[in-house]
Amino acid sequence: MTRLVEIAGSWRVAVRVARRTAYRSKARTLLVVLMLALPVFAGTALALSYASTYTSADAEATWRLGRADYKIDGPGADKVLATLPAGSETTRITYGRTVVRADGSYSLRDYEAVDVDHPLTRGMFAVRAGRAPRGPAEVAVSASLAKAVGVGVGDPLWTGLPLRERTVVGLIDSAEELGKPIVVSPADHPLGPSGPHTLVGLPAGGQGWQPPNPATLMTCRDQVGGGRTCTSSFSTFHRPDLRPDAAELATRTAAFVLVVGFAGTQVALLAGAAFAVGARRQRRELAMMGAVGAGPAQVARMVLANGLVLGAFAGVCGVGLGALAYGLNRDRVERIANHPLTEGVLPVPWLVLIALFAVAVGLLAALGPARAAARQSFRSATSGREEASRGDNLVWLVGGLLLAGAGALAALVASGTTDGVVTVTAGTVAVLLGVTAFAPVLVSIAGRAAPRLPLAVRLAARHAARHRLRTAASVAAVCTAVAGSMALMLYHSAESVDSMAIQPTARTGQVLVPAAVAQRLTPERLGELERSLPTRAVVPVRPVAATAAAHTDSAPEYGQTGLPAFPSQLVAVGGAELIRAVTGAQAPPEALETLRRGGVVAFAPSLVDGGTVELIPRDGRPAFRLPATVVPAPDVYTDVPGAVIAEPTAAARKLAVETGGLIVDTTRVPTGAELVAANSVALAAQVEAGEHLPTEITVGSKHSPHRKYGPMFLVLAVISGLVTLAASAVAVGLATAEMRNDLSTLAAVGAGPRLRRRIAAAQAGLIVGLGALLGVAGGIAPAAGMVAFRRDLAWQVPWLPLAITVLAAPVLAVVATTLLTRPRLILVRRMVV
C-alpha cells in the first residue's frame, strides 16, 4: 500500500512538473502537440465520415435495394412473383438510357423509372430539392446532371424516346453513386426501351421464402444445326449478397491496421526525437532531482509525464478540431464519399479510442528518452557535457533483419487466404519497422564518411553520428512517411489483369461510327460530324458476307498488351484509304498490287497461313483461299476490318457487300468537347430519323505498354513529397535546436553567418535522403502484400512517382531548408562549472 501511495504521489508531482515545463517551453510544446494531434484530427474526421456513411453492414445493400429483400428481373419474373408469400410488397424499377436535349445539344444519359416515394425504395435516393415526378410530363434529374445541362426545378427539359418536353420537378441523386448523372421518371413511364426489374419486400412471416429453382423455369430454343439451347429466364439479387463480403471487410480492416501502424510509427518517432531534445534540455534539472534523492524510476516518470500531458492535450484538441472540421465540411465529405450521410451518428467509443491513441503514442515516444534520462550520469549532466549515443551497429542490423524477415515470412504464409489479410498487413508493418532499424547503421556510416565531405556536410554528419539515435529516429520518421505513400502508389499503379486483356478497338483517336448511326446520317449531318472532329478522312467500311479464318492456336498474337490477342475477322472491300485508316501509314505498292490481282491484304499475321487467307462465306458455301500480303497494323484491333479485298474480287467470288459504319481517321486524339459535339450530331440524326434505340459513336483506344499516370498517381506523389517535407522540417528543426552550442562555438571562432544555413541544408539532405531510400524499401513490402491479396492485379512500377519521391523530395527539402533557415548565428552563454 505504501508503494502504491509513493507511485501515485510521484506521478502527481511528475505531472505537475510536466505541465509547468510545457508552459515554459511553449514552442517545443506546440510542436509536439501538433505532431500528436495531426493523426487524431485526421482519424476523427475519417471516423465520423465512415460512421455516417456505413452506418451498418446493411447500409450498402440499402443503396441498391432500398428496403427490399430481393430484386428479380428477366422474362420469367412474373412466374417467380406468383410464388411470393401473401403480404409481400412489390414495385417496379427500370434502368436504361435515354436522350437528353439541352441548349441544342444531344446526349445519351442513364435514366431510372421508379416510384421514389414507395416504402421499398426508401434509402435508394436522396431528394435534394423539389419532389419526385408523378406523371408522364414530369421528371427529376440528379444534381450533377442539372449542373451539366444547366436546368433547375421548374425548368423544361427535352428527354425521352420519343423526345418530348417535360418539366423538372426535383433534384434527386442516386444513393449508390451521388455523382452519377441520371434522369428519374415515374415507374410506369420509362423514358426508353429496357427490361423492368421488380423489388420484393417479404412479409414478417415469409422471410424464409426462396425463389424457385432456375432449372424449373428455363427458356429453350432450337438451334439451326440441331439441338436446343436452354437458359434461365430470370435472375435474382438477394439482400445479403449485396452486403460487404469477408474479403471486403478484411481489406478495410487491413487498411485501418496499415494506416494506424504507419501513422503511429511516424508520429512516435518524430515525437520521440522531440522528447529526446526536451529531455536533454532538462538534463541538469533532472540531474538535480536525482542528486537530492529521486530514484531512476522517478526521474523517468518526469519525462514520461511529458508524454502523458502532451498526449492527453493533443488527443482532446485533435478530436475537437476533427469533429469541427467534419461538421463544417459535411457536404464536401458527402461528395467525396459519393454516398449520402446519415444525420446524428456519433461514434463515441471510436472517438475515445482515437483520443487515447494520442496518449499512447505520447507515452511510447517518451519511453526511450525517459530510460536515457534515468540512466544518465549526474556528474556529466550537471556539468553540461553531452554523451554520445551508444549502441552496437551489429545489434541494430541483426535486429532489423530478423524483424523484417519475420514480417515478410508471416505475410507470405498468410497471403493466400482472405482471413489472413490482417496478418499480411501486420507483417508488412513489421517489415517497415525492421527497415527503420537500419537507420542508426546508415547514420553511423555517414559519420564515418564525414572527413571526406565539405565543411557544412561534415559538421552535419558528425553531429548526426554523435546523436545517432535521435537522428535515426528522424530518419525513420521520414522513412515511414515515404513508405506509406509509396505503398499506396505501388498498389494503385498495379494493373488489373482484366483491363490489360481488353483489346483496342481501333487506333488511338480514331472515331468509329456504327452502321446503325451511319445509315441515319444525312449529308448535312455527316458534314457537321466531320467539322466537329479533327478529321483527316472519312472512310466507309463495307463488309462482305464472309469472315477470315484465324490461326491463333499455331501462331498467337500478343499485340502491345503482352497477352494473347484475337484479331478482327471482318473482311471489307476497300483500297488505299482503308489500309491507311487501319494501319496509319500509306498503303505499300505490293499491297495495292495484291488487291489488283484479286488477293487479300491482311492486317494481322495470324490470319495468314501459307501465304494465303482462308475466307469462309456466311451463306454456307465452302471456304476458299486467296493469296495474301500482310501489312501489319500497330496493334491487334477488334472493331475495324482484319482483312481487305477489292470490290471486283468480291463480285467474282459472289460475296455480298453489306452497308457498314464509318471510320473517321483523325489527325490527333479528339478532345472531350469535340467528342461531345460529335455525339450530339450522331444522336440528333438518329432522333430525327425516329430511332428508338440510339447509340453513340466510339473512340479507338489501346492499352499502352508505357504507364500513363493519372491524377491519382501524381496526387500521391505530391502527398509523399509534402509529408516528407513536413517530417524533414521537424527533424531538421530539432537537430538545429540541439546544435545551438556548436553553432555558437563556430560563431565565436569566426564562422560566417551563412554557415548555419548550409549546415541546416546538409542536415535536411542527410535526414531526408537516408529516409527516402529506406522508405522506398519499406514501401515495397505493404504494396506487395496488397497486390498478392488481389489475384486480379499485375505488378507495375510507377517510375515517375518513384523518381519524384526518391530524388525530388530530398532536393526540395534542401532548398526549402536553405530558404527558410535564418543565417544569423546565435551566441549562447556557456555554463562554467
Provide a descriptive summary of the structure in words:
With 833 residues, the chain is an alpha+beta fold. The protein folds into three domains: 63-242, no CATH class; 253-379 and 391-495 and 711-820, no CATH class; 510-700, no CATH class. Helix content is 51%, strand content 15%. The protein has 27 helices and 24 strands. The two termini are 42 Å apart. The model is unreliable at 705-713 (pLDDT under 50). It comes from Phytohabitans rumicis. It is found in: Cell membrane.
Strand order of the largest sheet: 2-3-8-5-7-6
| Rg computed from alpha carbons, rounded to a whole number of angstroms | 35 Å
Structural class: alpha+beta
Mind describing the biggest β-sheet?
A: 6 strands, mixed, barrel
The number of helical elements comes to 27
The average pLDDT value, as a whole number, equals 79
Q: Uncertain runs with pLDDT below 50, 5 residues or more?
A: 705-713
Query: What proportion of the residues form beta strands (DSSP E)?
Result: 15-25%
Shape: globular
Number of domains: 3
Share of helix, binned:
40-55%
Calculate the terminal CA-CA distance, rounded to whole Å. Answer: 42 Å
Give the number of DSSP strands: 24
Short description:
This protein is an alpha+beta fold and 833 residues long.
Summarize the topology:
Blueprint: H1 2-24, H2 26-53, H3 59-65, E1 70-73, H4 77-81, E2 89-102, E3 105-114, E4 125-130, E5 138-141, H5 143-149, E6 156-159, E7 164-174, E8 182-185, E9 196-201, E10 218-222, E11 228-232, E12 235-238, H6 246-281, H7 283-291, H8 296-328, H9 330-337, H10 348-375, H11 378-383, H12 393-414, H13 421-436, H14 439-448, H15 455-466, H16 468-493, E13 495-496, H17 497-500, E14 511-513, H18 515-518, H19 523-532, E15 535-540, E16 542-548, E17 570-573, H20 576-583, H21 589-596, E18 600-602, E19 612-617, E20 624-630, E21 643-645, H22 647-652, E22 662-666, H23 672-688, E23 698-699, H24 711-738, H25 740-748, H26 754-789, E24 793-794, H27 799-820
Parallel strand pairs: 3-8, 5-7, 17-21, 18-20
Antiparallel strand pairs: 1-9, 1-12, 2-3, 2-6, 2-9, 4-7, 5-8, 6-7, 10-11, 13-24, 14-22, 14-23, 15-22, 16-17, 16-19, 18-21, 19-20
